[in-house]
Amino acid sequence: MTRTTPQALDRREIARWVARDIPDGAYVNLGIGMPETIAECIAEDKEVILHTENGLLGMGPPPPPGEEDTELINAGKQPVTAAPGASFFHHADSFAMIRGGHLDICVLGALEVAANGDLANWSTGAARAVPAVGGAMDLVSGVKAVYVMTRHCTRAGEPKLVNECRYPLTGRGVVDRVYTDLAVIDITPQGLAVRELAPGVTLAEVAGLTAAPLHDQRSTHRESHPDGNSAPSE
Amino acid sequence: MIDKRFADPSAAVRDIGDGATIMVGGFGEAGSPVELIDALIEQGAGDLTVISNNAGSGTTGLAALIKAGRVAKMICSYPRSADSEVFAEQYRAGRIGLELVPQGTLAERIRAAGAGIPAFYTPTAVGTSLAQGKPHGRFDDRECVLEHALGADVALIKAAAADRHGNLVYSKTARNFAPLMATAAETTIAQTSAVVGLGSLDPEAVVTPGIFVDRVVLIDRSPQWLDPSRSETGWL
Fold it and tell me: What mean pLDDT comes out for the span B157-185?
């Protein structure tokens, strides 16, 4: 992962930030890609139940090499295990959990997030691209808290937090919180509210890499590093 | 006497005609009824509309059916993956149609068809391009879009075990769309890794009751399913 700034967090450090905020007992869906890292970062004293929309509640870690089962996979079609207490179910039940508001948190990747909570994460709209949506629109419409985990900027350095999404939307006004490699930012009725900064990162730096106004609301939130105290490392 | 067993995949798919709408179970490879699809390719039916979560991967199964030029249109949620080039090539060349449906809406449309519900409102996709042109309604102060039931002429699904009545159980995440599709097709054809005697499936554990299944085809005997040490209850 290319760092947005020298002080920016790496993928695992962002994942630890998200994992820290997932409460004990939560039912959580982690999107394909970057958010998958969060599963490895959840503290052992927390019981967090992972849902994967292809039909498993209680998803465990990947199996050891050689023990993969082609009929036990996650939504990213990677081999996983079933944790003790797991259950299998068909897609209508799986999306009843999602759409019916039974899941507490989902964490998704993003192409863009707008200051009003609009999310674009399924299509660049490119003419030759094959469009594919999967369960993203269902997740954002039904899960109680929708978090986004993303680098603050694109590889080209363009801000991903914007006034208005240019890419096709996944949902309108659906995002509650964004975890980037620079900051934790809440979507509020007033717009983007900075809750936390990564160590060594300044508010001015984040504002300079964000294409929408930022409100500083750090005073209402404890400041800490995902590790607790250590500085970020590669 | 009810006996839904067919001798082989070819016999089970023999009467599928050109222009049929076919549901194909599976999420990626898991639950994909590959042997039934192979038989369908051999059988030759074309101009098919296929309803499936994905649009095939690699060069076998659904990808092979698409590559053979038999599919006129895909209705699916995620036709893109690392190895879905067969669909991508035909899509870019304009040789195959695509109706993209959010995954949960796809599941619910199929469920609705099987349950006799002609249409329903859902908040999924409101405000996006996938809701454009569809009727909207407001319920409990929430904007929703009208989606129609999605049925088919035939469903091809994969089960772990079946009996001659068509009762089915599945294997782990290979279950995915199969129980829904079984309810929503005129003719449901299940390939299975084991056919067991009537009464061997625990009625509490049957996932798809046989009323939803028309044909059962044994593909192979899976030793892990027939290992009695895997059953603590005495049921399979």
Answer: 98
